[in-house]
Design brief:
InterPro entries: MATE_fam (IPR002528), MdtK-like (IPR048279), Membrane_Transporter-Flippase (IPR052031). Helix content is about 75%, strand content about 0%. The chain is mainly alpha-helical. The strands form 2 sheets. Strands 1-2 form a two-stranded antiparallel ribbon.
Length: about 500
């Protein structure tokens, strides 16, 4: 069954840059919001009806799940960029090779994690110091989650490569179906309503498993029925044999991107340990503010992800002016969308914080105070996220990692620790805008003067001419065209060398 050529609405190399970027980013943003709301609703069911120990159990188990998903985040980003570059170059054959190799890698990794995690679930939770009263509940929940890992990884992977191909709408629609199913199945399996068995806390994890199984099956059936360009049929299973060059790129380029998530998680742990030292009131206020920040950072993350895919397609097409226009549009959209949220939360902060804190709590005023100091840092964070996404679209993944490491561990954590004698708890809150401003400055400097335009995802031979497949109806093209000449120190134009 021949694959259809990509539809025009999947082309991120055409049309008004700002409008194309916003339209592409909105489904990603909506998906992020849906996932957060799903987690919140499930937490309400477990916490209110099964008790605090059950909520503690799901929190500990979900921390492990988030770590596992974060560990493959970078590899998923690498696959997304490779697919986007190939689609931008109209090299469908290369995009399908990336799809096949990535699918084998993701599914193989997920099955291995599930096989190792199932017998070690209790040991992992004990190592995390899970409270004794929550340990049996957490183990029951985590075992089902490990069974769900292959499906969760597969759904995340397919969604990522579809976005790389320029289609953010399809992953969102199927994610919305998964969220609705998860929310609907939760009480049925928790309490055994109707024909459903009463599974208790394991029912919450089983709802997630079943919803994702159904969602993934429906998504794959949709791609097959629509003859999506990236669908690999029965007669094309050779594409599932890993290509060594692509596999190497997934690991070499993906690991540094994944390490960024690790650095962020570790810095948050370091900050929380310092916050706890100022008492439960401060900790509660910080926790309430974090709930608001989860939503404030979503526009920047969605725009950054969209900008990365859009820039990668234009890198593949050799349209460098459009790559730079994507960066400018992304920064402008970040200020508009994130700025609107920041202003709204500052004006309505007392009302918003009371959603998470009891009436009359002293933590409300603490949260308002720290929020007024720190929330503006998400404007800087958004610029960094967008610019880094554009930079990574060529394959330059190590410099953003180093700059983030410097901003977090060279500025944020030391500032929060060593400025306490002068600023007290405010040192923790001021550490956010200070480090975010440093990160933004470094990112903009590297974008302007760094060598990211010369980076390659697959190495120096990536720019060799590759014929586009016949079904696209194009002439042979190059996978990655040369970037525009850059001025040297004396102002003379020079073309960056390959490699």
């Amino acid at each position: 069954m021949p694959a259809r050529p990509p539809q025009r609405d999947r082309r991120l190399t055409e049309g008004p840059v700002a409008r194309t970027l916003v339209v592409f980013a909105l489904p990603i943003l909506a998906g992020n919001v849906l996932q957060s709301l799903n987690g919140s609703v499930n937490a309400v069911w477990v916490g209110r009806f099964l008790g605090e120990a059950a909520l503690t159990a799901t929190t500990n188990a979900n921390n492990i799940l988030f770590f596992l998903l974060g560990s493959v985040f970078g590899v998923g980003m690498a696959a997304t960029i490779l697919v986007a570059q190939a689609m931008g170059a109209r090299d469908l054959a290369q995009a399908r090779r990336v799809m096949g190799t990535s699918a084998t890698f993701f599914i193989g990794t997920a099955v291995a994690i599930a096989a190792v995690g199932l017998p070690l679930a209790r040991h992992i939770l004990v190592w995390m110091d899970t409270p004794a009263d929550a340990l049996p509940l957490a183990e029951a929940y985590l075992r089902v989650i490990f069974l769900a890992v292959p499906v969760l990884f597969a759904f995340t992977f397919v969604s990522a490569v579809l976005r790389g191909a320029g289609d953010a709408r399809t992953p969102f629609l199927f994610l919305a179906g998964v969220v609705v199913l998860d929310i609907a199945l939760n009480p049925l399996l928790l309490f055994g309503l109707g024909p459903f068995p009463e599974l208790g806390i394991a029912g919450a994890a089983t709802a997630t498993l079943l919803a994702n199984v159904i969602g993934l099956a429906a998504l794959l059936a949709h791609l097959r029925r629509r003859r999506h360009p990236l669908w690999i049929g029965r007669g094309e299973r050779r594409l599932l044999v890993p290509d060594p060059k692509i596999l190497r790129a997934l690991v070499v380029k993906g690991v540094p991107m994944g390490l960024q998530m690790v650095l962020i998680s570790l810095s948050m742990i370091a900050l929380i340990s310092m916050v706890n030292g100022f008492g439960s009131g401060t900790a509660a206020g910080y926790g309430a503010a974090l709930q608001l920040w989860t939503y404030v950072q979503m526009p920047a993350m969605a725009i950054g992800a969209a900008a990365s895919s859009m820039a990668a397609q234009n890198v593949g097409a050799g349209r460098w002016p459009r790559v730079h226009a994507t960066a400018r549009a992304g920064v402008a959209c970040n200020f508009a969308m994130t700025g609107t949220l920041v202003v709204a939360i500052v004006l309505l902060d007392r009302l918003a914080l009371r959603l998470f804190l009891p009436p009359g709590s002293e933590a409300v005023e603490i949260a308002r105070h720290l929020n007024h100091i720190a929330i503006w840092s998400f404007l800087f964070f958004g610029v960094t996220f967008v610019v880094s996404g554009v930079v990574r679209s060529t394959g330059a993944v190590v410099p953003p990692l180093l700059m983030l490491g410097l901003a977090l561990w060279g500025v944020r954590v030391p500032f929060a620790k060593f400025a306490q004698p002068w600023l007290g708890a405010d040192a923790l809150w001021w550490a956010f805008p200070v480090s975010s401003a440093v990160s933004m400055g470094l990112s903009l400097a590297y974008y302007r003067w760094g060598g990211w335009r010369r980076a390659r995802m697959l190495g120096p031979d990536q720019a060799e001419p590759v014929a586009a497949p016949a079904e696209l109806g194009t002439q042979p093209t190059t996978v990655l065209a040369d970037p525009p000449p850059e001025p040297d120190a004396g102002g003379t134009a020079r073309t960056p060398p390959r490699g």
